[in-house]
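Appendix B, example 12.
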Amino acid sequence: PFNNPAADTILCSSDGVHFRVHRIIVSEASPIFADMFTVPQPPRGSRPDDDIDFSGDTPIVHLQEDSQTLDGLLRLCYPVPDPSLRSHNDIRKIFAAAAKYEMEEAIAIAKGALHAFTLVSPLEGWAVACALRLEQEATSAAFAMCRVGAIPRTSPEALRHVTAGQYLRLLKFIRHDGDVDGESFSFWVADPSDAVEPSPSRVQLRPRPDKPLTLQERPFADLICRTSDGRELLTHKAILATVSTILQKRLLAIDVASHQSTSSDWRPNSATMSTRILPVLELDHPREDLTTILELCYPVKRITSRDLQLSIARTCRLARIAEQYEMQYVYRLLHSTFDEAQYYEPLKAFLFASSAELTEFARSAERTVLRRDPSVLAWIPELEENPASAFHELVM
């Protein structure tokens, strides 16, 4: 229904699909679109980028929703059969878009689909409601799980959209059969009483410092590594090629001649006062992470895990980079650093390792968690920063 050439507006999805719609229909469904359409459009041909904002004489409105979400949302506005909202992803995306554009009828239909979905899969229904901050629907799904009396052992994909802290409060709700303080209890707000004081018999460690390494300036640098935040780090191709076969292949593919014609890539090597043009290797990581990774690649000073003062979160992030580039030495060093830290803070280590998809790290921390008291159900702040999926598998 969205390819009618008589339509007066094109809605463009985030993945570039055009939906030809009639303003009057969409405006009736959404006051947000109604207001948007009242903004005067500049005359055709008045701007150099008109090809982006027009298709022929039809104006184009660019939206953030993908084509599947936009198709379902518009079908709820048009006099055509409603879309089939059977998966948690469909319901979550359609509801979020309907709420964003204040489409009351679409919101009601999405809520009805969520209710039906919850009857079949209460845990996934709770996760969707929780991700959308629908208190009544989340509570109803939680009561449904109380009636079922068991949580599925497998981790549904919907748990990736809620935090481990929210999941912990769901377990508390089920453990008390829903008999929680209705005024103070919330799936979205941590209860300080859920935190368990550490056992005095256990060796305690103050919070681990986080001090990334500084990349030392060394002579005869022949490569610029450009970070995701636009910083440029001088380094040596031979070092990176030796440490990482992945980077070795990328370096071999760099065409130095292409940089010679680009003034933005001309950089003098201050370490040698040379004015040679250096090739640029783009790396999609921030400066603080890359300086540590690159410094660990140099064999001049053999660094051990005890020399590194990195938080668990940064250690996991750096290990993910080392794994991505197959830097085996750097990876092993960070693994040793992680093992020392997870002995004292195993649950925190497990959460960050799981979030970084470091399977080997996560299994190591998991074994430590399951050997320890207090219970794994104790609250820590990091539960609010990491998804519930891995924590669910740990609890199960």
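The beta strands are 9-12, 18-21, 54-55, 58-62, 223-226, 232-235, 280-282. DSSP finds 18 helices and seven strands in the chain.
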